[in-house]
Design goal:
single chain, 323 residues, alpha+beta, Deoxyribonuclease I, Chain A, four-stranded mixed beta sheet, two-stranded antiparallel sheet, 10 helices, 14% strand, extended
């Protein structure tokens, strides 16, 4: 399903309707649903996936770990049997409505509260060079009229100084010859989006508002062709990077396509968190007999106390047993 307006971070929308009978095995139903959803996600990684239905006694939340369940109101008496999952967060808000006809299930009104990626992340301002045949010829003329020997003789055997000088001079010529322009890069732009595609998107909106269906179809056909050409051009660019062993460029392109981001750094816990970890990982090292004294737990003072040798954790201290 591809509605007229869909946030650009989603390629299309896929809706799955599910029904689990009261007599069905809950674990088997969840496994079947998980297999189907995993197959669809592999085939359409950028699609908006929605799962809705009556799940009765089964709860697929544990198997659908990357999905968010949005029905928070009772759907039948004091139970939530009808569920709605989506593979994006903060997308809907649920409100209860009276049953439809003689149905024993309440209606659920899902209000969209999703903010597109372009509204959540600000645009990045970048300065790019406008290369053309004229600017290349002007740059060649600049280099051809440069007296390289007179400029380089003063450095003699200083290779590092000569390298820095030539690099600075080339950058100086480029900055004074090649014009620049300031562009805004939006977070929801695909890497193959170019100015022609953006212009066609605006033209599509204009044709939609005018109500001219024939013009709308013509613009849509042209837009599909431009998107196809843009993807093909981007594919060739990645192939050239692979042929030139430009691993960094290929990896950056793959991260741009997949939306990969750096993981957030994990926050460090306090001394209570350390004690909990000690208790958890050493829970099998204690005797089942009741101890006569209680082991001392870590405190902030003992954590901060300097020591020449590492001290064992107090939670691991052997305890005397009853005889």
């Amino acid at each position: 399903m591809r509605p007229y307006y869909l946030p650009r971070e989603f390629s299309h929308a896929i809706v799955i309707a599910a029904y689990v009978t009261p007599s069905a095995n809950a674990d088997t139903a969840c496994d079947i649903l998980h297999s189907a959803v995993s197959r669809i996600q592999s085939q359409h990684p950028q699609a908006l996936l929605l799962i809705s239905g009556d799940f009765n006694q089964s709860s697929p939340s544990s198997t659908l770990s990357v999905f968010t369940q949005y029905v928070t109101c009772h759907t039948r008496e004091n139970k939530i049997l009808d569920l709605f999952y989506a593979n994006t967060k903060e997308a809907y808000k649920s409100l209860p409505l009276p049953p439809l006809g003689r149905s024993d299930h309440n209606l659920v009104h899902l209000l969209p509260v999703y903010k597109p990626l372009v509204h959540r992340e600000p645009a990045v301002i970048r300065t790019v060079k406008k290369w053309s045949a004229e600017t290349e010829e002007a740059l060649k003329d600049c280099f051809s009229t440069t007296l390289w020997e007179e400029m380089c003789d003063s450095y003699g055997e200083d290779i590092d100084g000569l390298t820095h000088f030539i690099t600075d001079y080339v950058n100086f010529c480029v900055e004074n010859t090649v014009p620049t322009r300031t562009v805004r890069c939006f977070s929801n732009n695909k890497p193959w989006i170019n100015p022609d595609i953006k212009a066609l998107l605006k033209e599509k909106k204009r044709a939609f508002r005018s109500g001219n269906k024939e013009e709308m179809k013509a613009v849509q056909r042209e837009l599909r062709r431009k998107i196809r050409d843009g993807k093909e051009s981007y594919r060739k660019k990645m192939e050239v990077q692979l042929q030139e062993n430009n691993v960094s460029g290929v990896w950056n392109s793959l991260k741009a396509i997949s939306g990969h981001k750096k993981p957030d750094s994990q926050d460090c816990g306090d001394w209570k968190w350390v004690n909990e970890l000690n208790v958890f990982f050493n829970r099998f090292d204690h005797s089942t007999a009741p101890p006569t004294t209680q082991a001392a737990l870590l405190t902030p003072s003992c954590l901060a106390r300097p020591s020449r040798f590492p001290l064992p954790s107090p939670i691991l201290t052997p305890l005397p047993l009853h005889t």
